Structure formats: structure tokens, C-alpha cells
Amino acid sequence: MSDGPQSSPPDTAGTTGVRRVLTVFDVTNVTVGAIVGADIYVASAITAGLLGPASLLAWLAAGVVATILALTLAECARVVPTVGGPYAYTSKAFGPLPGFLAGWSMWIAEMTAMPVFAIAFSSYLGHFVALSNFETHAVRIGFLAVLTVVNVVSVRAAGRVNDALTLLKLMPLAMLVVAGLGYAVLHLDTTKDHLTPLAPFGLSEFPRALMLIVWAYAGFELSTVPAGEVVNPGRTIPRGIAVGMAIVTTFYLVTNLVVTAVVPYEELMVSNTPLVLAGTAVFGAAGATIMAAGAMVSVAGSDESDMLGSSRLAYAMAADGLLPRAVASLHRKFRTPHVALIAQGAIAMALSFVDVLSSLISFAVVNLAFSFLLCAASLWRFQHGHPADLAAVARPRTGWRGRGTRFLPASAMVVCVGLLAAATHRQQLLALAVLLAGLAIYTVAAPKRANESALEWVQDRERILRRLARRRMRFLGGPMGWSRGHTTPPRRPRT
Fold first, then answer.
1. Domain annotation covers residue 9
2. How far is CA 421 from the centre of its chain?
């Protein structure tokens, strides 16, 4: 996200002056690059501890779930080709308050992910240096502080750091996958022992494991690039995302197959560094060093990217008057949203003292699911002709692809509700409390908009009730023989 969301209707003809140069290949690269990162270094051990080798099924199911959500956001991007993501789509469909809730939930989710990466960084650093409890927390805080400073000093420097880390983060994973598959084939008896029984703990924890794995697929929202920059966006964006998600799902499946095949699940379930164990099994001590170093680079890259993107979301919302104006402040020298960066960095540092990774990941997914739920509802509203200026663009296209998009909103809403239901009651209540805190901030930061949103909500409910009443009258034909299509009783004939 580079700017605040715009309210102008979509430029379907490409007349805004932006060149349409992005192809299916480009969108596929954006999708893969945005998703594959540090998550695989963290989530593998957690899910193996819940399901054993059956976690491979959860990784496959999570890929399908993430693809549904990604295609839903892609369709929203086609209808509303502006920057801002879920915040922009929901604002266009339902107004500023629901848009704020979508953006707020997304921001909370991204902030919650930052300490996860800091915790993972300290865990993998522990392979090289023995750390006390105090030193571990100091490393986490220092890690977040350095990335915050890099982002405050220069967006260009942050971008260069991210580019370099992106190139480096995939190399160790690719090495492990290729060598690990060969190792598994050459040691079939060991591989068979590690993969059986398939579900040693049963499948009762499958929903929870699925919820945690969805976090590893997060990042696909970045692939919903503005349609004005894409050649034939109606076909290119969904196709690029579908291909990208297929690549990511396959890569994650193969990586987890290698990890599960070369390391017993009993060891994975008690480790915070699953890929170090896999690297040790395949390459020996040198492999452990390579995987630990690769994990640290990947974690740093993911957290840097997360910090950069989430600060711009907060800046955009504050610039639109939905968060305190101070959050939209730019540094006098560096021209970066330093207040947003420092605020989210401080919150992430506080959360880094939470040592239970699964709790942080689950809370992030709860907030992501709520934000995506509002996006799915927005797409449903677009397809049903609201607002009117988007009716022609949002109408599902003809052909089998068009028929498929008709079911996207409902499918995505079912998926999001399922993810919310998979959370514990404590996580649900905590997410509700954070949402109410956001509403309080919204009311203080934008009191006029809050009043307007309340009035719009009442008027919208009134319109819905009137429409339902008219339909009921037409269906029943009215009491005592009223003619269909009339809402008033006929006059009594004179005698």
C-alpha cells in the first residue's frame, strides 16, 4: 500500500495514465514472493505436534482455504482497483466504520505477527550462541528496534534490505527440499517409520492446526495489485493468484513432507527450530548451521516487510481521519510515518515477552479472518449492485469462470466463520475486546464520521426492512384478498 484509499470509481479502461504492464507471470511472482518466507520455519513444528504426519493434510487444506480468500480479494481488487486492500474495499461497500474495522483488524493481525518473528529469530540464534532468559528477550527487543529504526530512517533503505533478504531467504529452503527428497528416497525404511502412524494423536486438533497453518499462507493480500497496472485484470489477476497459490501450496507440502520424513514427529513437537533438525538429518552439522542462518535471514526479511506494510496501513487510515492525526505524522527529515512505526514497534516489543507462539499466531489469524470476512461481505454487496456506480463492473462475468465468482463471497464467508470458530473462547473474547478498543479510538478520532456511520446504519436497516415488507406483501397477496403487488387494501364496493 502506497497511499490512502481512493473513493473514485474504478478505471476499467485504463485511462488514468497508469501503464498496464503486469502479466500473469508478474502477478504469480508477487503472490509467491509475498507468501513464502519465515512462516514455514515456525509453523512446521507446531502443527506436527498437533497432528503428527497428518499435518500434511492440514497444509493441503489450508492451501485451498487461502486460495479461496486470495481469489475473493482479487475479485475485490478488480471491482475497486485502488490501494488500501481490505480497508478500501469495505469502505467502498459499507462506509467508513466497517472500513475502519477491516483496516483495524488487519493492522492488529500484522502487529501480532511481528513478535512471532522476533521470537523465532531468538530461537534460531540460540543454535549459534547460548542465550539466557534475559538475553533472549533482549535479542527480541533489539531485533524489533533495529527494524523499526531502519524503516524510520528511509523507506528506500528498508526496501533495499527487504530485496536483499528476499533473494537470500529461499536458497536454504530450496537446498533442503532437493536434498531432503533424495535423502528420503535413499532411506525408505526410515521415512516409512517417521510417516507412520499417520495420525498418532487423532484428528481432533485438525481445525486448530488448520487455523495455525493459514497464517503461513498470509501475505496473499499483497498480490491483489491495483487492476490499473495489470494487463486485462479481469483474467490476469485471478489466474496469476491461482497459479501462485498452487506453487506455494506445492512448495509448502513438499517442504513439510521432507521435514516429517527425515525427523520423527516426537522431536518436532518439542522443538522451536524444526528446519534445523531437518538440516542436521540431511546435511549433518553444516546443514544445521545453513538452515539456522537461512531462518534468521528469512525471519528478518518477513518482519521488515510486515513492519513496512502495516505502518503504511495505519498511516493511510490516520490520513483519512479514522485514527488519531498523530499517526499520520511524517518525520521532518526522513518523510516516513515515524509515529506509526514507533507505536507498532513498541507494541510488538511488549508482545515479544509472550513465549507461546501458537497463541500469538492464533490471535493474528482471528483478526485476519474478521478482516477477510468483511471483504467477502463487500464482494457480495458489490455483486448485488451496491453501490450503484460499481454495479456494471461487479456483475459476475459470463462463462465458467464467471459462474465461479458467484460463489466466492459465500465460500469465503464460510471459511472465515470457520476460522473464527476454531479459535478458543479466550482468543475470541480478546479479539472482541481489541475490536471494541478500536471502536473507541474511532469514535474519538472521527466523531463526525462515527455519527454519520450510525445514521447510515439505521437508514440502511430501515431500507432493508421496507424491502422485506414489500416482498412479503407480494408473496402473500395481502390479507383478505389484497391483489398481488399492492400494499394497500382495496376499497369496499358501494351497495
1. no
2. 17
